[in-house]
C-alpha cells in the first residue's frame, strides 16, 4: 500500500508541476491584460486569455483546421521525416569514412552557417510556390543538427566494440546495425530534438512568403488586418504544436533509448 501511495503522490506531483506553471502564466497574463494603459491601449493589443480563447475557437476550430492547420502539419511531418532520413543516412556514411569527413567538413560548415530563410527566394525560383518548396525550406534547416550529431555519434563509437565485432567476423551490415547505430543513437536523438524546433520555425517562415494557406499565412493575414486576438491565437496554436511534437518525441525516445536511460540510471545509482 505504501508503494501505491508513493506512486500516487509522484503522479500527483508531476501533474501539479505540469499544470501549475501554465496556470500561473495565464493568471499573470490576465492581470497584465486588464491593467489600464491609455497610452498603449492594452485592452486592444494585449487581449486577455478569454478573448484569445474565443478567437482561437473561431479561427482554428472547424473548417479552418482542415484548410489551414492540416496542410501545415502535413508539410511539417514530411519535412521532419525527410530531414531524419537524409541526415542519418548521410551522417552515417560521412562518420564511417574519415577521408570523406575531412573532405566534406568545410562544405558542411559553410552551408550550416547559411540562414535557411535567405534561401527561400532561390528555392522559390527553382521549385515555384508549391508544397515542395515549403518542404525543401524545412529540410534545408532541420537536416543540419541531425546530420552533424549523427557524424559525431558514429565517429565516437567505441573502437573496442567495433574491433571485437570484427574479430568475431560479424558482417559489416551487422556491425552497422547492431553496434554503430545503437552507439550513435543518443546523439542522433539529440540532433532530432533540435531539428524539430528548427522545422517548426521554418514551416511558419516558408508559409509567410507568397502563400495562400497555412499557419504562417493566416498569422500574417491577421497581423496585417489588425486582428490582434486572432494573431495571438495563432501563436498559441504554434506553441501547442511544439508541445505536441515534444510529447510524441519524448515517448519515442524513451522507448527506443530505454537501454541508454537504464544504463544512465545504473551509473547514477
Features of the shown structure:
mainly alpha, transport, MetI-like_sf, cell membrane, transmembrane helix
The helix-strand sequence is HHHHHHHHHHHH
Spans with pLDDT under 50 lasting ≥5 residues? none
* Number of β-strand runs: 0
Mean pLDDT: 84
CATH fold annotation: MetI-like fold
Strand content: under 5%
Number of folding domains?
1
Which range best describes the helical content: under 10%, 10-25%, 25-40%, 40-55%, 55-70% or over 70%? over 70%
CATH superfamily: MetI-like
Structure description:
With 269 residues, the protein is mainly alpha-helical. The protein contains twelve helices and no strands. It has helices at residues 2-34, 42-45, 49-60, 63-96, 98-113, 120-127, 131-155, 159-167, 172-207, 215-224, 228-256, 258-268. The longest helix is centred in the last third of the chain and has 36 residues, at 172-207. The protein is flat and about 70 Å long. The mean pLDDT is 84. Residues 69-253 form the ABC transmembrane type-1 domain. InterPro entries: MetI-like, MetI-like_sf.
Amino acid at each position: 500500500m505504501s508503494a501505491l501511495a508513493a506512486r500516487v503522490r509522484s503522479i500527483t506531483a508531476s501533474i501539479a508541476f505540469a499544470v501549475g506553471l501554465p496556470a500561473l502564466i495565464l493568471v499573470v497574463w490576465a492581470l497584465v491584460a486588464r491593467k489600464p494603459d491609455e497610452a498603449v491601449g492594452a485592452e486592444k493589443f494585449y487581449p486577455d486569455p478569454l478573448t484569445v480563447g474565443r478567437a482561437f475557437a473561431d479561427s482554428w476550430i472547424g473548417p479552418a483546421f482542415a484548410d489551414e492547420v492540416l496542410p501545415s502539419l502535413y508539410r511539417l511531418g514530411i519535412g521532419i521525416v525527410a530531414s531524419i532520413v537524409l541526415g542519418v543516412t548521410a551522417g552515417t556514411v560521412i562518420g564511417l569514412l574519415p577521408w570523406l569527413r575531412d573532405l566534406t567538413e568545410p562544405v558542411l560548415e559553410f552551408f550550416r552557417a547559411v540562414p535557411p530563410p535567405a534561401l527561400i527566394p532561390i528555392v522559390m525560383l527553382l521549385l515555384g510556390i508549391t508544397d515542395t518548396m515549403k518542404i525543401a525550406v524545412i529540410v534545408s534547416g532541420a537536416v543540419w543538427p541531425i546530420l552533424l550529431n549523427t557524424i559525431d555519434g558514429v565517429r565516437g563509437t567505441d573502437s573496442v566494440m567495433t574491433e571485437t565485432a570484427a574479430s568475431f567476423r560479424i558482417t559489416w551490415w551487422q556491425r552497422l546495425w547492431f553496434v554503430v547505430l545503437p552507439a550513435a543513437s543518443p546523439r542522433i536523438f539529440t540532433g532530432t530534438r533540435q531539428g524539430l524546433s528548427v522545422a517548426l520555425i521554418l514551416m511558419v517562415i516558408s508559409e509567410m512568403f507568397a502563400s495562400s494557406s497555412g499557419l504562417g499565412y493566416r498569422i500574417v493575414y491577421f497581423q496585417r488586418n489588425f486582428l490582434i486576438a486572432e494573431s495571438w491565437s495563432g501563436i498559441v496554436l504554434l506553441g501547442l504544436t511544439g508541445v505536441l511534437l515534444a510529447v510524441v518525441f519524448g515517448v519515442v525516445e524513451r522507448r527506443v533509448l530505454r537501454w541508454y536511460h537504464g544504463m544512465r540510471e545504473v551509473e547514477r545509482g
